[in-house]
Design brief:
This protein starts with a helix and ends in an 8-residue tail after the last helix. By secondary structure, the chain is α+β, with helices and mostly antiparallel strands. It has 2 domains: about 40 residues, no CATH class; about 50 residues, no CATH class. It is about 40% helix and about 15% strand.
């Protein structure tokens, strides 16, 4: 998966809506407001109005963002994620253990857990 598709898949799984690329020049037609963020933006789950569009979290580089994403897992998914998938993703020959997994490792394991990981062709 590309980094962008990973970001979108995780944000969607966490309840973000209307995810799209924006830049400083964009205007939200529905709310008639200027969008001041560039990159991937969306409407977070706690808001209902499209004028609440903000930049989505940087799941691949921010451990705090991934910690929040992990809260979206069901209890069964959480067990699978922590007991088998995350340790398997972290076995890269570097001696890394799941406890010190990077945000990128956690993002891949999260997507594998929820069945959204796609192998690039």
């Amino acid at each position: 998966m590309t980094p962008e598709s990973q970001q979108i898949a995780i944000a969607t799984a966490c309840g973000w809506r209307d995810i799209k690329h924006t830049n400083h020049e964009d205007v939200d037609i529905e709310s008639r407001s200027i969008i001041y963020w560039s990159g991937l933006t969306g409407v977070p789950p706690e808001f209902i109005h499209y004028e609440n569009r903000i930049k989505i979290p940087d799941y691949l580089n921010d451990l705090n963002a991934m910690h929040e994403a992990e809260k979206a897992l069901t209890q069964a998914q959480d067990y699978q994620y922590r007991d088998s998938i995350l340790p398997a993703v972290c076995k890269d020959g570097s001696g890394m253990i799941a406890m010190t997994a990077s945000a990128r490792h956690r993002a891949e394991a999260f997507l594998r857990t929820i069945g959204e990981w796609e192998v690039e062709k």
